[in-house]
Amino acid sequence: MTLEELTIFATTQANVGMEAYYWWCTALMVIIHVGFLMYEVGATRMQNAVSSGVKNLLAFAFMIPTFWLFGWWIYLAFPGGFVPIDLEGYGAPWNVSMGPMLSDQATGVFWAAFTLFACTTASIFSGSVIERIRISAFVFLAVILGSVVWILGASWGWHPDGWLVTRFGFHDVAAAGCVHTIAGLFAFGVLLNLGPRIGKYNEDGTANELEGHSLVLSFVGLLTLIVGFFGFVGGCLIWGASDFGGWTNIYGAPATLSSFVFNMLMGLSGGMIGAFWYSRGNPFWMMSGGLAGIFICAGGLDIWYPGFAFLLGIVAGIVIIPANNWLHSTFKIDDCVGAVSIHGVCGILGMLAVGLFAAGYPAAGDIPPTNFMGQLISAAVMALVGFIPGYGISAIMKAAGWLRVPDHVQKAGIDKAELGLQAYHN
Amino acid sequence: MNTWPGPANSWEGVDAYFTWADSPGMLVLITLVMACVCLGIIISAARHESETDKNTK
Fold first, then answer.
1. How many structural domains is chain A composed of?
2. With contacts defined as CB-CB under 8 Å, which chain A residues touch B28?
3. A241 Rama class: left (phi>0) / alpha (psi -120 to 50) / beta
4. Which residues of B touch A410 (CB under 8 A)?
5. pLDDT tens digits, residue range A91-134?
6. What is the 3-state secondary structure of A386-408?
7. Residue A378 lies in a domain
8. Is residue A140 part of a domain?
9. Inter-chain contact B2–A96, Cβ cutoff 8 Å?
């Protein structure tokens, strides 16, 4: 082989390998949706089970075209704030890079991975609002969250040129902030306007447990979701193919798949065990704790000592239950799956944990090293990026009568009333 | 821009080769139709829900 032939060979191998890697990460992330589907349908009472599933699947379906239409462009165009940078047409849906193109093996697979992150973000919101949100209203809000809001936050804090990164050294390799915090706080904003299910609260303010029709489906769904998370976390690593020497994190600093899997598994197990102990064996909380354990480690998945990741997971597993109880008793929300506590609270804790326990890590180029103030400011920004549009847009929709299913439809069951279907038959 | 295989059916120099890749106007039109379809379906669903509301009362 000549040197030129060898160069071409090596470059081709690297590019094809990169493409295949993100292809399979995307495929694995679809399993997150299988998991969310099972989890939410299980958490729903029987008369609304089908509509919960339909709603969840619609979020997935609508994220794909809307992220292609404008989500991908938002990520690329807004790292500096609210003013877009000039991309010379790249990222617009009519740009040549947004379709089959032989010289570009990266755009499609990166777009696909980000689209599945968007789908995941919308799914986080989906479970909290089951049984009383109008399906059309939910789809609209999911598009806002999945193809506008989270990706704006990602442009700011999950992009090497994002202003939270370049100015404050924000470090959040596996999206504790832009996905989980934003989705959790967006859900919180919507829940404040949506109101609880009928029968959730008594007149004296005490709450009733409205259990779903299949606890087994829920906790099997949660473990299935975790399988899909290998695609999510894997997609958080950058393989620059022939451009870089190896893996980097989203900010361009060296990282390894090994470090991610060490800490993801340790955080997962810590969360499961902590929640098992605190909930006295409730499998719903145990598996939710597992997720929370991943999220609390997500910010520093590339740098934690695995033993510490396990302890962080334990904290997350314990915290989610009192946090959920406090949110309900204080704000009288009805978060059917604990999304605000699991994703919102643990996402925030995940960002702060990096500042508290991993300050001083250098990043690539001129990015400041990790620091507590940077993490604190960024956590506040992510929380606001999620909460403000969630609350504001749902308030307008509520005033227009386009948010909540009427009480008589809720009582009749959305499946029968709107879809003419029944989940189970004799 | 689009460089479809030429009359000789050669892939030499081909880059963006998807349908209408050489027609920005068509790409914009298709994009707009997509956006209208997505929005239209949400509106249609909302109308169906309102009908259901009346029929269930």
1. 1
2. 94
3. left
4. none
5. 999 999 999 998 898 999 999 999 999 999 999 999 999 999 99
6. HHHHHHHHHHHHHHCCCCECCHH
7. yes
8. yes
9. yes
